[in-house]
């Protein structure tokens, strides 16, 4: 089957031919015809399966061939694509530009961590397709920079990750601003129960497409476990890189601090490395990713959420320097390699602290992974496990407000994002490693306690510390 067999217009076929795409992937074969009919869609597709083209191509065609559904005196955005991270938003935006190069459609990508003013100025001009992260989109809404009343097609990309990151309240706020008559496309890595519940409230009699089992690991990826003592991981990683002559390897850590520390140590020891995570400025993240894609950087150290949207052709090596707390994230990590028909290698350095995490992963993927003991790096059989440091914000609780609230992706590390006067000082990022400030209610409670303690200087202060 070819893309022409799916009913795509000549302008899109020309663009696909220019980038060398001739045969649609399974998700594209299933999704494109459904989207072209205007029907709602619920699709399960892992990253790396071609899902972005699966919704981008028919979206472009529908906007080009159908009349404006919600006409207004002032031009309105017709299609909205919501993504959980900046990197994924940028990737989708590139696909829209690439595939739509022969169409008279305009597009824009907006996310936090960068100056909001150029985005505001661009939103005042003609715009057909908007790709956005939830936080920055709501910033523009609060400032009156955008009208969402003309949306004809809504795409929620990686909806499972958006729910996991605690964006459900932001998504509901966005949905309340959209016209009821529209086409909805929801893409998720799995059909988890919470996704099914959310989809039921959002989609109208959707077609359901699932091109892979809910949790699968890439068939072309060679997976191995290297048991090692926790304090010998860095030395073993260096040995593998040097002796294997690896020139491009993506390394995962659980925390931002761990990513920074490992990248600095590798770079100091002569292995060019940089870290990418939510606390990095957008320019720093783009610089690191660009150097890595261009082959100028041997090692890119990343946290889970920052790596979403990284799309690198023929990436040969992925290393789990630390195992993820959530088994499904292991699948997402190793899915960075073994793409587009190429082989890949996924290696995990596992110390005694991570044995339970490893067992959870093997149970999830229904596979016993090969163990490889490297001479000189044999793990101590008498080593005792230590509590793992939890990655703050990687899998945040889904409640909003207070100390448990996750950070929005839209805020830069130095607090450049503003959401009106009330939120301009709430700096944060996708990984949420910066402690959230107390809510207003907590501030009022603190003030009452402080005032009361000031008037009871001679009394017991036991309640003051509670």
UniProtKB/TrEMBL annotation:
GO terms for biological process: response to temperature stimulus; ribosome assembly. The keyword Aminoacyl-tRNA synthetase does not apply. Residues 376-466 are annotated as: Disordered. Residues 439-449 have a biased composition (Basic and acidic residues). Residues 236-380 form the Helicase C-terminal domain. InterPro entries: DEAD/DEAH_box_helicase_dom, DEAD/DEAH_RhlB, DEAD_box_RNA_helicase, DEAD_helicase_RhlE, Helicase_ATP-bd, Helicase_C-like, P-loop_NTPase, RNA-helicase_DEAD-box_CS. The gene is rhlE. Residues 413-430 have a biased composition (Polar residues). PROSITE patterns: DEAD_ATP_HELICASE (PS00039), HELICASE_ATP_BIND_1 (PS51192), HELICASE_CTER (PS51194), Q_MOTIF (PS51195). It comes from Halothiobacillus diazotrophicus. Belongs to the DEAD box helicase family. RhlE subfamily. This is ATP-dependent RNA helicase RhlE. Pfam families: DEAD (PF00270), Helicase_C (PF00271). A motif (Q motif) lies at residues 1-29. The lineage of its organism: Bacteria, Pseudomonadati, Pseudomonadota, Gammaproteobacteria, Chromatiales. CDD domains: DEADc, SF2_C_DEAD. Its EC number is 3.6.4.13. Keywords: ATP-binding, Cytoplasm, Helicase, Hydrolase, Nucleotide-binding, Ribosome biogenesis. Its main location: cytoplasm. Residues 32-209 form the Helicase ATP-binding domain.
